[in-house]
Amino acid sequence: MNQPKTLYEKIWDAHVVDQRDDGTALIYIDRHLVHEVTSPQAFEGLRKAGRKVRRPDLTLAVPDHNLPTTARLDAQGNKIPIADPQSAAQLEALEANAPAFGIKYIGASDINQGIVHVIGPEQGFTLPGTTMVCGDSHTAAHGALGALAFGIGTSEVEHVLATQTLQLTRSKTMEIRVEGDLGPGISPKDLILHIVGVLGTAGGTGHVIEYRGKVFEEMSIEGRLTVSNMSIEAGARAGLIAPDDKTFAYLEGRPMAPKGADWDAAVAYWKTLPTDAGAKFDKSVTIDAADVSPTVTWGTSPEDVVPVNGVVPAPDSFSDPSKQDAARKSLDYMGLEAGQALRDVSVENIFIGSCTNSRIEDLRAAAAILEGRKKADNVKWAIVVPGSGLVKAQAEAEGLDRIFTDAGFEWREPGCSACLGMNPDKVPAGERCASTSNRNFVGRQGPGARTHLMSPAMAAAAAVTGKLTDVRELTR
Amino acid sequence: MKPINRVEGRAIPFGQKNVDTDVIIPAKWLKTVSREGLGEGAFEAIRAQEGNIFDDPEYAGAKILIAGDNFGCGSSREHAAWALADLGITAVIAPSFSDIFSGNAFKNGLLAIAVPQAAVDRLMEVAKTDPITIDMESMSITTPFQDRFAFEMDPFRHQCLVEGLDEIDLTLAKSDAIERHEKRNDSAQPWLIPAAA
Questions:
Q1: How far B112 CA lies from chain A's nearest CA (Å)?
Q2: Fold topology of A295-475
Q3: Packing angle of the helix pair A188-199, A221-229 (nearest 10 deg)
Q4: What is the complex's ipTM, to 2 decimals?
Q5: pLDDT at A63 over 80
């Protein structure tokens, strides 16, 4: 009997190309997603060194980060130029680099375009048991399908393009189990915000997290993507959820997924991947599902979470002096006071989108709250940004776009949008945003912007009342 | 890459914990197709404040940055390492680093050196008035006051840094092993090649 292995160890072992004595290994990379922001310098590096892309067929390029989310084609079907010359240059660089190096490129006005982490699973490019990288930290999302997926920097992008491998050291393993069932109205986003709050932003550093147990087994693939996506917010480079029948059903028939006999062989292999009984993790964390409420952030770190019915914590309530100091700075930046009820906090902006929460289930959850309602008068700007052209088309087929626009939202083209303040969608300085994205860092949504992270249903509820709100009050 | 054996000079006693890469370089600076010139945007929000430590003449020309736990958390942007390098920083000392940042730093010959909090506290104190020295051969940080703090580093990274090796060249020397892996995949798991969409 072989020694029991975790899912992570099985994937790692299957990808070792060369093992060094010092413990580092050359790991083969099966899938590489490329976007416009972290790739230009990598392609430039290849050019300078006269190198080619080793496996363009395992690489997929798509623009998302700085692409405006307003209309991309005019009434005649011509491309609408991008106003910001730097963004335009970066987008043109990818559009030129991809074909020059033989890489499949999904253009800005293609219906398949979208956020890299939405289109990977959607196209069937993401597969269980594969190693997958992208020059973006939220690559962790793809672990929801049982892929070992993590973000890399531009030099590593260049290394993967040139060699289809990375020089890596093995991570430690952490299992997170959730005991009990999530209460009604509690979403995967609430759960992962709660988990990040428990672990802290460095709690997962050096680890790959495997989310295990009934709550995750019962969760939809889209919910799993939301959870695994934010593994990086706890410092873990990757998250993993064992592939199961839901995973296979989700992938079957997707354009880039295996077909026919290949499909059957793949599924047979994928079924061998889940962690063996008796396998050991370096660390185990148990979360009580009863502790998870509709959750929002109050500060400028994703670990700064609190139930929406709670109050802003007092900086003195933290035992660590540097956290006390950080909390004081956060409250000053956020314009909040210790002891203030979160439910009294009014918001002027609503952002529903990002690689964390822009899939069809997210839009359905938000639309269910907004149907027959309107945004509050104090909400000046409310946008919904579908994660891909296919999500957008599906939402339109279900009439969700009308629900959003009737409620006073703008219905946009796919992209990263207001998640990261590098395209025209930004939150004005000093204003608050109820946001379904993943980071509430200082200046993340624009200089001086104040971000409160939450689920799509909670963001929709905030739009209706004009302040942070327990969504369960609108569903009763 | 140039070999790095020793970094000696003044250090900025910054000390902040959980410094995320959005703080090191905000997203609006990421719209470049070059690795150069990002120093201008480095720590932009902090440097907008009068009397900030980065523009303190006391630390002009400092090569070392001392920070708190979990330095470089958040986004994978290598622009954070490029921005620090463009500021003239060649080493960051902190109790811990995010995984992605320390990888990015390494690829750019920027030393990310982790030492315990107590050592960081002492170095923060010394940095206010005196230079510090990082020696890669002995893997230690020293001060003019006989302090000596040993640090550890992944042996592969250490070798690349002190010998100035190009990692892509090193990997390309293993092309045969890569090819063997690909051949094995082609026969055992042909479905790994994406179906033509």
A1: 15
A2: Aconitase; domain 3 (3.30.499)
A3: 30
A4: 0.94
A5: yes
